[in-house]
Design a protein that fits this description.
heterodimer, A: 517 residues, alpha+beta, D-Maltodextrin-Binding Protein, domain 2, Dipeptide-binding Protein, domain 3, 2 domains, 7-stranded mixed sheet, 16 helices, B: 321 residues, mainly alpha, MetI-like fold, 2 strands, 75% helix, SBP_5_dom (chain A), transport (chain A), Peptide/Ni-bd (chain A), ABC transporter substrate-binding protein (chain A), SBP_5 (chain A)
């Protein structure tokens, strides 16, 4: 009895003397999430934030490798059926037990024809509850990427969905607001205490979390601060503890401050330049870029080192391949950045009869320093005798032109999210535009050899073979100069220096359940 | 009088319809929201379906008529970004903007009027002239610049006041107020100051000009001859006669402030209507943008109409106009 009292006093004293131990982390984000419903928007950032509240069957670990989350293990029963064994000690925030029924209801909700998240789980066919903690998922064909897809399919409580008539996903098109837009009931390490859209969302620690917490955060105050300078000022003033977007031009200033620590890395996003491969340019003139020598010349004209040094302030990573090293399918053998050779470029242009070739160069505003990158590239092309006409605008204006093929040359940034696999790029950017393939193949090219390898990689369940095939696809893309890789973008987070352990993730999604204050 | 009223209100409605029309015309060139709404893995079929569900395939005129019809019921649809009713979104943001504007207006009157009086009575003295001169700076500095300087000085360097957000708010029914908490009041200071700077100089210059005019008037001379004390002369006799134009100006400027708050709100991350609009622009959230434009112009048009009617009530000669 006495012992307990002493212990209790000791604990109380300890708690008093170390207020920093259990703390509030103030997160100043560059933008808000749109809803508390993770199925309402296919937005990687919102899904990343909501991952603190909701969880999937699997998740990414510190090294972006897939690890078990709500499922403990899985096996492939037949080429189109996967069996998942679920964790049996999981509780939802409202106290309900987690079972296979919840998984089934969530998959049904995510794959609903009106669900904006449907594209995140394209191969899903149906599911069968075997027992309370076992479920089988059917996919349409051999599908090696199911686990990748499941990382963003968060699990709802089936009863809670039913009780609040939130079984159908919220859908902006048909004008339905939903209970899940404003309320949550996940299994994650944090629960939502309050939310004011665009002002503040408060997360508190969930004591019933199934996993052993590696963090010591009690509360997260999530505040969107859209203006770069205001966000930097708030960090310097100590009003926020962390931002997931430190502007490149402010990094030296932040580094100079004693109270701020800058975490730098390179993003998964690879910036590249694509070409139209149609017979005619948008002004009706013949498209000389169908000649590989012209594309090669355009690549040789670009000085990546100069862009890295002058435009990206040394913070980017020159790229030779179209995916970043962290992405499965990446092959170091082909990742050799092209050395600039303006003289050779001129020769090639002369040989192809493309001296003075004029084309439209479509640039948007959503990549890091995109305007400056485009201007630099355009002047490098002009130097070898090409005539690029720069067309710059906001993403919302440029994207319709791009997707309708009204561009000759354009920029593209591709991070392979949320799939985190080379297949995302090969199937959507480089494959011939047909069916669900090649939606971002804005240049309209078609390479049968490439398509064959890519399609084969889509149904290969042997991971080693599949990754080799993806490497093969990337090699073909490189040899045929389907696109010119420029660099991986810089990635910078900044925290208050009192925060001890803050792992940086190259998918630019903070995982605060791994943070020690 | 009735005919005048009908005509005035009819004018106001016509203006509103025109605003809605132009708002729509502009949004046609903003780009495609669908590309910002779906993620990379959505298929072309899904994109087309979403476009159809949002009614983007309908003709311009059909979309416009639908919008005006709904807006007349106060129904602006769902925000494409937040998936919440736009009316609710704006109603939630309105208290923040309103409090900011009211505090800025009060500040501009409390600071501007005394400054105007002092620069008028001290005309020719070095302090009055330098105040008058520095007010040019106040008029010409853009408010986003003022805001950033205020944040740098008072928030980053001195650490006295928060540089972003609204602090803790208290919910009084539908109205959320930051005036009842210490952090809420602290958060109000810098944005209100930056928003009111322009107004302060405006009020000050107006009061100064009026004061100079009135100080030359006969009744002031007589009062002075009667031996009325300076202070009473300036603040009771003279100032009272200057206030009418100040009140008119302030009433008209409230609408302006609500519109200008957009910039201040962006700099200070003030969760008001202006910031909602700015975010809507980034995401091509047409329902929010259209509703914002309509509501702001509604406030303008209402204020103008009320002022016109008030004038007509006072001065019957204006009714013929």
């Amino acid at each position: 009895m006495r012992f307990t009292r002493i212990m209790a006093t000791g604990v109380a004293l300890l708690a008093l003397s170390m207020p920093a131990m259990a703390g509030t982390l103030k997160w100043g984000a560059s933008r808000d999430i749109s809803s508390l419903d993770p199925y309402s928007y296919g937005d990687s950032f919102a899904l990343g934030v909501l991952n603190h509240v909701y969880e999937g069957l699997v998740r990414y670990d510190r090294n972006l490798k897939i690890e078990p989350a709500l499922a403990t293990s899985w096996e492939i029963v037949s080429p189109t059926t996967w069996r998942f064994h679920l964790r049996d000690d999981v509780k939802f925030h409202n106290g309900a037990d987690f079972t296979a029924e919840d998984v089934q209801a969530s998959l049904k909700r995510a794959s609903d024809p009106k669900s904006p998240l449907r594209g995140n789980i394209p191969a899903y066919k149906g599911s069968r509850v075997i027992d309370a903690h076992t479920i089988e998922i059917d996919v349409s064909a051999n599908y090696p990427l199911l686990l990748n897809d499941l990382t963003t399919i968060y699990i709802f409580d089936a009863v809670w969905l039913k009780d609040n008539s939130a079984e159908a996903p919220t859908d902006v098109g048909s004008g339905t607001e939903g209970y899940a837009t404003y309320h949550e009931n996940g299994t994650g390490p944090f629960k939502i205490e309050s939310r004011q859209p665009d002002a503040k969302t408060v997360f508190t620690k969930f004591d019933g979390w199934w996993d052993k917490p590696q963090h010591n955060i009690d509360r997260i105050e999530f505040t969107p601060i859209a203006s770069n300078s205001t966000r930097v000022a708030a960090l310097l003033a100590g009003d926020i503890d962390f931002t997931d977007q430190a502007p490149v031009q402010d990094i030296p200033r932040l580094q100079a401050s004693q109270q701020v620590r800058v975490l730098e890395g390179t993003d998964l996003r690879t910036v590249m330049i694509g070409f139209s491969q149609r017979d005619q340019l948008i002004d009706g003139k013949p498209n000389l870029m169908k000649d590989i020598r012209v594309r090669q010349a355009m690549q040789l004209a670009i000085d990546l080192d100069l862009i890295n040094k002058k435009v990206m302030r040394g913070k980017s990573r020159n790229a030779g391949a179209l995916v970043a090293p962290q992405i499965p399918g990446y092959d170091a053998a082909i990742d050799t950045p092209m050395k600039a050779d303006p003289e050779k470029a001129k020769e090639l242009l002369k040989a192809a009869g493309a001296e003075g070739f004029a084309f439209n160069f479509n640039c948007a505003d959503s990549l890091v320093n995109e305007e400056q990158v485009c201007q630099a590239v355009a002047s490098m092309w002009s130097r070898v005798g090409l005539k690029p006409q720069l067309d710059q605008g906001t993403r919302a204006v440029q994207t319709p032109k791009r997707s309708s093929g009204k561009v000759d040359v354009y920029t593209l940034g591709w991070a392979t999210l949320p799939m985190l696999d080379t297949y995302s790029l090969t199937s959507q950017v480089l494959h011939t535009k047909e069916g669900s393939f090649g939606i971002f193949n804005w240049g309209g090219w078609s390479d049968k050899e490439f398509d064959k390898v890519t399609e084969a990689s889509a149904v290969e369940l042997d991971q080693t073979k599949r990754l080799a095939m993806e490497g093969q696809s990337l090699k073909i893309a490189k040899e045929h100069v389907l696109m010119i890789p420029l660099h991986q973008q810089p990635l910078a987070w900044a925290t208050n220096s009192k925060i001890k352990d803050f792992p940086l993730f190259s998918d630019n999604l903070p995982r605060l359940w791994l943070v020690k204050m | 009088m009735l005919a005048f009223l009908v005509k005035r209100v009819g004018n106001a409605i016509l203006v509103m319809l025109t605003v809605a029309f132009f708002a729509f015309l502009i949004f046609r060139f903003l780009g495609d929201p669908v590309e910002l709404m779906v993620n990379e893995s959505a298929t072309q079929v899904e994109r087309d379906e979403l476009r159809a569900r949002l009614g983007l395939n309908d003709g311009f005129f059909a979309q416009y008529v639908r919008f005006v019809g709904n807006a007349a019921h106060g129904e602006f649809g769902l925000s494409w970004r937040n998936q919440q009713s736009v009316t609710t979104l704006i109603a939630e943001r309105f208290p923040a903007t309103f409090e900011l504007v009211i505090i800025a207006t009060l500040l501009s009157l409390l600071v501007g009027i005394p400054l105007g009086v002092f620069t008028a009575i001290g005309r020719g003295r070095w302090w009055a002239e330098s105040l008058q001169f520095s007010s040019i700076v106040g008029v010409s500095l853009p408010s986003f610049f003022v805001g950033i300087i205020l944040i740098l000085v008072f928030s980053v360097s001195l650490g006295w006041l928060p540089g972003y957000g609204r602090g803790e708010v208290v919910q009084l029914g539908l109205w959320s107020t930051g005036l009842l908490t210490a952090s809420g009041r602290a958060a109000l200071v810098l944005p209100a100051l930056s928003l009111s700077l322009f107004q302060i100089t405006l009020v000050m210059r107006l009061v100064r000009a009026e004061m100079l005019e009135i100080l030359r008037a006969d009744f002031i001379k007589f009062a002075r001859a009667r031996g009325v004390k300076h202070r009473a002369l300036w603040f009771r006799h003279a100032l009272k006669n200057c206030l009418m134009p100040v009140v008119t100006l302030t009433a008209m400027q409230v609408g302006n402030l609500i519109a200008f708050a957009l910039v201040t709100e962006t700099v200070f991350q003030w969760p008001g209507m202006g910031m909602l609009f700015m975010q809507a622009v980034t995401f091509v959230d047409i329902p929010v943008m259209a509703a914002y434009l309509c509501i702001v112009s509604f406030i303008f048009v209402t204020l103008n109409t009320l002022v016109d009617i008030a004038y007509a009530v006072i001065d019957t000669r204006l009714r013929a106009a």
